[in-house]
From TrEMBL, chains A, B:
Keyword field contains Iron: no
Annotated family: Belongs to the TrpB family.
One MF term in the entry's GO annotations: pyridoxal phosphate binding
Enzyme class at the top of the EC tree: lyase
Chain positions found as N6-(pyridoxal phosphate)lysine: 110
Stated role: The beta subunit is responsible for the synthesis of L-tryptophan from indole and L-serine.
Name the UniProt record assigns to this protein: Tryptophan synthase beta chain
Gene label: trpB
CDD domains found in the cross-reference section: Trp-synth_B
Gene Ontology, cellular component aspect: cytoplasm
Domain Tryptophan synthase beta chain-like PALP: 75-408
């Protein structure tokens, strides 16, 4: 069977919280003003209470609310596909599977947490949600979710992407999202820049934060890095587990691309307890050489944004002032990483590899030609990782089971292939 | 079950030839020079022998060659999805299903015939394939197929679309297709136009035909209208049949959008024998009000192109000189229609309805919001048709089974939604 489906009835009913099973405590987020552990009151200005609770809880399984489940079922469970044409192309004894998240309404895994976050904001009385977006995947997902639960969504989009990717803006507009290029004229911080400034994720975050801190009923929504965001993404890994069970296979290697960590964490976390209890499974985070957070960063406290407004998180970081060279995988251009993933890398439970742009785009082209799906440039890093592993399996003459998540399609990024 | 899948093993192994079951003979294509029935020799300058045979044959089932089947299995069988969120939104007692062809590598049903046509050209020794494309769906599909069987593909793309849809060009390039805006400098006919002329499908066809008639080893490939093209698309309807059998349902209404007829014919033909043998099933072809070939055209012989180079076909036509107003559904802007479908409309076995741009885009927006897939503007006509039928079912308080084909996604057409 090339495609392993799950029925609606087999859809996971809970998210999995990896914090419940880790044999260590995470270092707490710090207040940027005092550098002491931050108080929940301060965080409540930014996030609604149920999401803060999810950020801290040690409960193993968190029930997916009916309203969220209903939205998931519009496109989930997503298929797990045997990449047998890729196997054939590589002439490898490995069995390669990919979990395809590109079937979501906005074309990437981001919808999984967007729906949950907007739902919890809705029941907490949030009036408007602010966020930033780079390549536009997150802004699209949050706009879509905002439409579902009737909360206005306002997106600050890095100006250079805003201009290069008009279709992302159109997709956000279709779903009712309000998008402005950042730096904008709508914040004091934005006004301090020249009107043609290309912008950066750091500036866009600062603009969104400024709005949230100064507007009654406004909250902030983040698409990666934080514990509750990764929690929501565990539907990916939970589904993969069930799908592999259907064909009586266990993974030898699990691979995903890594930017802030939401796709990687969502894929891998449900398999972490297996590894902690002695199973031999390899977790590989794939990142660009040009933004090598996990492979070359330092494990320390750092800010989440460039201007130092956010709480300090203990994580692998390239430094909040790191400016990555212009690479196409906009979603992987972040200086930091999820605190949970950072710690798991530190503890050598997860390992990371980096990939050049050439190796990545070459993998993307091969994949598009043999498997017939044009991958997002971010997801192409996972394909490159799977190809490396499949070649190793060939050298070792081992019939390894390699699983990776294809987090999104690349139909909005075709110019990058030119 | 919301999504009805078929396994690889359940993939149809044959195309279905509706000509074998029709109780009448089609009028033959005529030679444009003599207006007598055209000789096969003349057609062999344009098409390879196996495709000409398929154009004429009365055999009921044509085996899908292994090489073509292998390519189909990269993305087929495609899912049949219960549109239960649309049903809920419309509060209709009808059961609505859609066959989703947007999962193909180039995002539309066109790949089904592109793969077959390139394969038969390959085994017939064709050196290069010429074609034209409007919105770009067909050019993308043929480029993809050309890559698979290693035949260079050269596409004349209507200049106004070439400029408005750069991503389509990029997709063709990714798959190795060579695309030029038409009118071009590469043909005598193209040179007769001003270099900024916006172009038309008629001009692009003439350019491709001029190349084919003057270049050794060159052949022409058409994405719709002809019998063999519709034959290849019957995998759609054959799969739908199997999928409905799995849930023990029979269709009351089958709907598809109609441009040249390939998507519509592919969907409906496998159900035609049921209707001929007395079953009560309604076939509805949905076309734009602005290009109302089946609803307002005349049933007579006409040319397939604007300059009168192609054979004459007996069909519904708005006249070869008909210039449709600028509408977004580029794939439905054709003055003629498939001769088989035309005759079935004439015989009242198929009926047609037309839809305004407003009704169509409104249907598309509703569908994107409730079902989470952004439809191609062409496919949106079928959604509009399904919504009309679902409302009728509600008025009649009947639990009708409505099936339509969603022939492609609209991710390259988002500007049309703005």
């Amino acid at each position: 069977m090339r495609v392993i489906y799950l029925s609606t009835e087999e859809m996971p009913r809970h998210w999995y919280n990896v914090l419940s099973d880790l044999p260590f405590e995470l270092d707490p987020p710090l207040d940027p003003e005092t550098t002491n552990p931050i108080s929940p009151e301060k965080l409540l200005k930014i996030f609604p209470e149920p999401l803060l609770e999810q950020e801290m809880t040690k409960k193993r399984f968190i029930e997916i609310p009916d309203e969220v489940l209903k939205e998931y079922l519009r496109f989930r469970p997503t298929p797990l596909i045997r990449a047998k044409f890729l196997e054939e192309y590589l002439d490898t004894p490995a069995k390669i599977f990919y979990k395809y998240e590109g079937v979501s309404p906005t074309g990437s895994h981001k919808t999984n947490t967007a729906i949950a976050q907007v739902y919890y904001n809705r029941i907490s009385g949030t009036k408007v949600l602010y966020t930033e977006t780079g390549a536009g995947q997150w802004g699209s997902a949050l706009s879509y979710a905002g439409l579902k639960f009737n909360i206005p969504v306002k997106v600050f989009m890095v100006r250079v992407s805003f201009e290069q990717k008009p279709m992302r803006k159109q997709l956000m507009n279709l779903f009712g999202g309000d998008v402005v290029p950042s730096p904008s004229k709508f914040t004091e911080f934005g006004k301090s820049f020249d009107e043609n400034h290309p912008g950066s994720l750091g500036i866009a975050i600062s603009e969104a934060m400024e709005k949230v801190l100064n507007e009654e009923g406004a909250k902030y929504s983040l698409g990666s890095v934080l514990n509750h965001v990764l929690l929501h993404q565990t539907v990916i890994g939970l589904e993969i587990k069930k799908q592999l069970e259907k064909v009586n296979l266990e993974p030898d290697v699990i691979i995903a691309c890594h930017g802030g960590g939401s796709n990687f964490g969502g894929t891998v976390f449900p398999f972490v307890p297996d590894k902690l209890s002695g199973k031999n499974v390899d977790f590989v985070a794939c990142e660009p050489e040009s933004c090598p957070t996990l492979t070359k960063g330092v494990y320390r406290y750092d800010f989440g944004d460039s201007s130092g407004l956010t709480p300090l998180l203990k994580m692998y970081t390239l430094g909040k002032d790191f400016i990555p060279p212009k690479i196409h995988a906009g979603g992987l251009r972040y200086h930091g990483a999820s605190p949970i993933i950072s710690r798991l890398v530190k503890e050598e439970i997860i390992r990371a590899e980096s990939f050049s742009q050439d190796e990545t785009f070459n993998a993307a082209r091969i994949f598009a030609k043999v498997e017939g799906i044009v991958p997002a440039p971010e997801s192409a890093h996972a394909i490159a990782g799977a190809i490396r592993e499949a070649k190793r399996a060939k050298e070792e003459k081992r019939e390894k089971v390699i699983v990776f998540t294809l987090s999104g399609h690349g139909l909005f990024d075709l110019s990058a292939y030119s």
